[in-house]
Amino acid sequence: MKDLPQGPQGRDDFEARLRAIGAERYHDRHPFHARLHGGDCTPDQVRAWVINRWMYQSRIPMKDAAFMSRVEDPALRRAWRKRIEDHDGGVTEGGGIRRWLALAQAVGLDPDYVASGAGIMPATRFAVDAYVRFVRDMPLLDAVAASLTELFAPRIHAQRIEGLLAHYDFADDSSLAYFKKRLTEAPEDVKFGLDYVLTHADTREKQDAAAAALIFKTDVLWAQLDALWHGYVERNIPPGAWRPGEGMAR
């Protein structure tokens, strides 16, 4: 006799399952972040992180636009639109993208060089592009669930602000403005996203898919740090990737 399909988990149990994924797999556990936050990164390792993380930052509003292009519900589009506005900002303020480029300048890089995407490692590009495709092509519920790494982001931003201020001369209110702003932006975004997933994942199959989507997203973040470690801590810089001395501010 075949096993009967499992019913859906209760809302609280399913939320606990999602949070457990972050506790086990979020990239705050990666040794590169321990190195960065502890002040053990060289200036060039910090620059490599800023350059490669730009690939992810620059694609966030693009993946959100791809998501919105498939949404027929105006209420969902209105709620999701804030994410694009947070990162793209207005003409004068520029949002999270411009704040990231301010960090690039603070660590000695030419912001135009960073914004060009030159020097991105192949592994970073593949990981970020995979995330954009996932959000563009997978069911809307899975795409929203993948965004729930924001559940765990405020913790890492707080650790990063504290660690960078304690250990690096470039760190100040201006250079760390991106992370400080995300302390208030991310909880607003995740409140909506979490409620959407808990409400719409109303079968065990949908819950399993949502959990798998969140795991996928943690893998995307982890893979980027694996690449940084291999390239700039173990000094195996791949062809075409940024090399120390390139793209420096004038």
From TrEMBL:
Coiled coil: none annotated. Keywords: Oxidoreductase, PQQ biosynthesis. Its EC number is 1.3.3.11. Pathway: Cofactor biosynthesis; pyrroloquinoline quinone biosynthesis. GO terms for molecular function: pyrroloquinoline-quinone synthase activity. It catalyses: 6-(2-amino-2-carboxyethyl)-7,8-dioxo-1,2,3,4,7,8-hexahydroquinoline-2,4-dicarboxylate + 3 O2 = pyrroloquinoline quinone + 2 H2O2 + 2 H2O + H(+). InterPro entries: Haem_Oase-like_multi-hlx, PqqC, PqqC-like, Thiaminase-2/PQQC. The keyword Oxidoreductase applies. Residues 16-226 form the Thiaminase-2/PQQC domain. GO terms for biological process: pyrroloquinoline quinone biosynthetic process. It comes from the Bacteria. Ring cyclization and eight-electron oxidation of 3a-(2-amino-2-carboxyethyl)-4,5-dioxo-4,5,6,7,8,9-hexahydroquinoline-7,9-dicarboxylic-acid to PQQ. Belongs to the PqqC family. This is Pyrroloquinoline-quinone synthase. It comes from Paracoccus homiensis.
